[in-house]
């Protein structure tokens, strides 16, 4: 009779060792986007390609298949959603995908991603889509090949979406986003018709970068990010990455004449970092120590960035610090004017700087475009025109450059086809979770105004973080909140905050 616990331990040891290689790969990727000398890019791509091949070899080792066969329907799988059952279930799902991917494809895709990101940085700086077009075409072709190799029952896009939001289906996500769009469009129209506008010049004054860094790190620390197990650096497009159980790297980018850029991207990435720091350390490298999904990950970042970070209560606590840090910019600005400015609602070109009400329209545009790119209905050469057309139709503004248009995001250059919809799912999840947290904890606004953020963080650690990947994202939220994915709490939250600012019904 097989010793199922011994076999399970062997499986876990194998994946913990593989995680070390993946973390080294992440470190190389972090270094490539933060510190790498310009001329070192090609060799870095070769290094990451080599490691990716080694990781693929370990992830497709026949021993894994044999272990999984022994563990199938063993006592360890009898109780659903336990750490052991989730480990076996999620490893099996990943293994069955990985063995369908030729090593050649994995290595080629890995190499193309690094070259893609390096090319994108230059193309965006030079506003030159033509230099980016060939590598983007290759990345989309490789994404298509990956989807076909893995296989799918519904739409081709399902195979890629599953990497980021396990068990989600394109048709389901499309329906959720269409419902959200139907709710957002009239809200944005009401705000526009209100005729009210904040004084945005407040945020465009001079904010020295050194002081921005101090304030951003202070805010991240106060909401719970542990800098003894993480760090903050500068990059072209902010991100968070995990190098080890006690090494979470977050990044931001600064604009000394626009306060929100760095501050809110720091809070956003710190939200990601809080999730990573809150995952069970004893399961690091295994499904119970991994994030449930990218949608859940984005729910954490958007929650801290927006629902907390743009709240009046947050600034009731933090505004005095900001005024001390930037006396020339804020000494004559009442907190109400500042709060209105950081919650301005107006169609804009740049997704990462978009307001909460229009942000999801940016995501819907990308979701529609990448499906068309993947299917071949939209040739890569026609992307700039298609992008501009959708922005004109759906947001009422037209990009004047590709740098502020189809070149603004890093995701496609990194081959992350299927990633974008998780941002909107995250926004929806975050509002559902916060409604439940308010019900469970009471006066959260009073806590924020007093600088008390730990009750919310502890609640998230108990209800979200500690479960790791034991549940798919949508199921986890339903277990916590009692309702399936629903955009109504997000609209309710937006109306409650924006209604008083714009004099509209909420």
From TrEMBL:
This is Metal-dependent carboxypeptidase. It comes from the Bacteria. Keywords: Carboxypeptidase, Hydrolase, Metal-binding, Metalloprotease, Protease, Zinc. Binds 1 zinc ion per subunit. Zn(2+) binds at residues 268, 272, 298. The active site is at 269 (proton donor/acceptor). Pfam families: Peptidase_M32. Its EC number is 3.4.17.19. PROSITE patterns: PEPTIDASE_M32. One of its GO terms (biological process) is proteolysis. GO terms for molecular function: metal ion binding; metallocarboxypeptidase activity. Its cofactor is Zn(2+). Belongs to the peptidase M32 family. The keyword Transferase does not apply. It catalyses: Release of a C-terminal amino acid with broad specificity, except for -Pro. Broad specificity carboxypetidase that releases amino acids sequentially from the C-terminus, including neutral, aromatic, polar and basic residues. PANTHER family: CARBOXYPEPTIDASE 1, METAL-DEPENDENT CARBOXYPEPTIDASE.
């Amino acid at each position: 009779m097989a010793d199922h616990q011994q076999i399970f331990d062997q499986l876990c040891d194998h994946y913990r060792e593989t995680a070390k290689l993946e973390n080294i790969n992440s470190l190389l990727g972090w270094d490539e986007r933060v510190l790498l000398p310009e001329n070192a890019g090609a060799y870095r791509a070769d290094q990451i390609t080599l490691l990716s091949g080694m990781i693929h070899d370990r992830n497709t080792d026949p021993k894994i298949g044999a272990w999984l066969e022994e563990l199938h329907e063993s006592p360890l799988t009898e109780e659903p959603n336990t750490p052991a059952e989730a480990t076996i279930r999620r490893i099996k799902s990943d293994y069955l995908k990985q063995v369908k991917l030729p090593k050649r494809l994995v290595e080629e895709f890995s190499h193309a991603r690094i070259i893609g990101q390096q090319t994108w940085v230059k193309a965006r700086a030079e506003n030159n889509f033509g230099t980016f077009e060939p590598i983007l075409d290759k990345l989309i072709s490789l994404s298509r090949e990956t989807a076909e190799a893995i296989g799918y029952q519904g739409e081709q896009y399902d195979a890629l979406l599953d990497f980021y939001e396990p068990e989600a289906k394109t048709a389901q996500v499309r329906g959720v986003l269409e419902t959200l769009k139907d709710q957002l469009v009239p809200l944005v129209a009401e705000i526009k018709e209100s005729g009210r506008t904040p004084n945005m010049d407040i945020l465009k004054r001079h904010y020295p970068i050194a002081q921005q860094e101090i304030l951003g790190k202070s805010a991240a620390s106060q909401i719970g990010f542990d800098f003894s197990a993480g760090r903050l650096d500068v990059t072209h497009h902010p991100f968070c990455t995990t190098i080890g159980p006690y090494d979470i790297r977050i990044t931001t980018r600064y604009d000394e004449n626009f306060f929100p850029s760095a501050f809110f991207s720091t809070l956003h990435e710190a939200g990601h970092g809080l999730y990573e720091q809150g995952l069970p350390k004893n399961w690091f490298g295994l499904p119970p120590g991994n994030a449930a999904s990218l949608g859940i990950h984005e729910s954490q970042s958007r929650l801290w960035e927006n629902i907390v970070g743009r709240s009046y209560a947050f600034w009731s606590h933090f505004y005095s610090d900001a005024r001390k840090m930037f006396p020339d910019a804020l000494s004559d600005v009442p907190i109400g004017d500042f709060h209105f400015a950081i919650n301005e609602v107006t169609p804009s070109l740049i997704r990462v700087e978009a307001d909460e009400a229009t942000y999801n329209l940016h995501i819907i545009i990308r979701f529609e475009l990448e499906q068309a790119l993947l299917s071949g209905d939209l040739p890569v050469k026609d992307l700039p025109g298609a992008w501009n057309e959708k922005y004109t139709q759906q947001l009422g503004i037209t990009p004047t450059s590709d740098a502020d248009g189809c070149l603004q995001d890093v995701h496609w250059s990194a081959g992350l086809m299927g990633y974008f919809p998780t941002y909107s799912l995250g926004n929806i999840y975050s509002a559902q979770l916060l409604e439940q947290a308010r019900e469970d904890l009471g006066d959260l606004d009073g806590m924020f105004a007093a600088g008390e953020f730990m009750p919310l963080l502890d609640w998230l650690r108990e209800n979200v973080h500690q479960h790791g990947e034991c549940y798919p994202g949508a199921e986890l939220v339903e277990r916590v909140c009692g309702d399936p994915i629903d955009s109504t709490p997000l609209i309710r939250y937006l109306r409650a905050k924006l209604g008083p600012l714009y004099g509209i019904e909420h």
